[in-house]
Amino acid sequence: MKKLIFSIQLLFVSILAVAQETVYPAKAQSETITLTNATIHVGNGTVITNGSITFENGKIKAVGQSVTAAGKVIDAKGKHIYPGLILSASQLGLAEISSVRATIDHTELGLYNSNIRSIVAYNTDSKVIATLRSNGILFANVVPQGGTISGTSSVVQLDAWNWEDATYKADGQMHMNMPNLLPRPSRFAAFLGQTEQRSTADQVKEALGRIEEIKGFFREAKAYHKEPTHAKTNLKFEATKALFEKKQKLFVHCDIVKEMLVAIDFAKEFGFDVVIVGGSESWQIADLLKQNNIAVILAERHALPTSPDDDVDLPYKSATYLQDAGVLFAINDTDGSTRGRNLPFNAGTAAGYGITKEQALSSITLNAAKILGIDKITGSLEVGKDANIVVSEGDILDMRSSIITHAFIQGRQVSLDDKHKQLNERYKYKYGIK
């Protein structure tokens, strides 16, 4: 009996020893590392066969076929090397379990919350973060929700002790939720005891009124910034200063053409750098978006089209229309069940419907970095940029062959352990599976 109790205790201790809580953020790079004999996908469309990459002190020092190996050498023969993937818009670290209110911190009360900063609520202990690293995703733009103006988002690197350590670029984007200009009848009207529903015209009129209110908010903010001194400080107006100075971008969340045309109008009236987030119908006005230098972050690709009259595979093909028109775009993963993990496979699906694999890779690396304003330091494997590197046994865009073996953030080799892998090992042990 004592032996049985001892064995159970030993098993319990061994499980704790590999628990996610003991997976620590990696220390700063202390030695030069060279990855050799791999196929290197630079991220800008260039592919280097049988190449090597050297990095030290967190920066890339050399990339190419004739690189002299230095420091610690890791033979990556037969493998593929990629830039760290970037999740362009996510609630990562702000929401853990949707049904548990205490784990949700992405929404603030009120309509105009320009002074809200999502980064201070970012939880580096989220169990979801490690599952993203296992798929090669090393960065995420953490986005607030709720209201009309939701606040600012920040880019984080996914291996940190706290939000200060995680911050890669703080408060780079202000987020606006466009009022819905495509109203639909409520499916719950009868259940809620509503005998009469508002007409479509009334709903559109109400939405247009809300748009004018948003313009009024920005007009007042613009006037506020022109005043040399203020009798009282307005925190909501103060928070828009970087937006008017073009040090910050306005991310407008919308899908249909009418709403995107309003977003273009905002860019023209206020001089904002506007990015469309969602953009399911952006393919219809791709040339107009290009003319106005509007970038697009395409939402979930594994979804049905917005209109029932559209081709059922339109979400897969829309990236091709934007690519052909020269629109800067990124691909995202917003599926609540995958929590961002399927980002590379969303891009892989787009690669099967018109764009090349390297263009698809750019949509989740360099293009995303350009949209988020971090392309000078990451997004591609170029000399001088941060050593944010992923090594895969196969094609990172293909879920069948993508097996991530190494990941580096600013030269630090990060752990690829996660809760999914731990549970897999736990139940393999339970059922005696080797």
TrEMBL record:
<dbReference type="InterPro" id="IPR032466">
    <property type="entry name" value="Metal_Hydrolase"/>
</dbReference>
<feature type="domain" description="Amidohydrolase-related">
    <location>
        <begin position="326"/>
        <end position="412"/>
    </location>
</feature>
<dbReference type="InterPro" id="IPR051781">
    <property type="entry name" value="Metallo-dep_Hydrolase"/>
</dbReference>
<dbReference type="InterPro" id="IPR011059">
    <property type="entry name" value="Metal-dep_hydrolase_composite"/>
</dbReference>
<feature type="signal peptide">
    <location>
        <begin position="1"/>
        <end position="19"/>
    </location>
</feature>
<protein>
    <submittedName>
        <fullName>Amidohydrolase family protein</fullName>
    </submittedName>
</protein>
<dbReference type="InterPro" id="IPR006680">
    <property type="entry name" value="Amidohydro-rel"/>
</dbReference>
<keyword id="KW-0732">Signal</keyword>
<dbReference type="Pfam" id="PF01979">
    <property type="entry name" value="Amidohydro_1"/>
</dbReference>
<dbReference type="GO" id="GO:0016810">
    <property type="term" value="F:hydrolase activity, acting on carbon-nitrogen (but not peptide) bonds"/>
</dbReference>
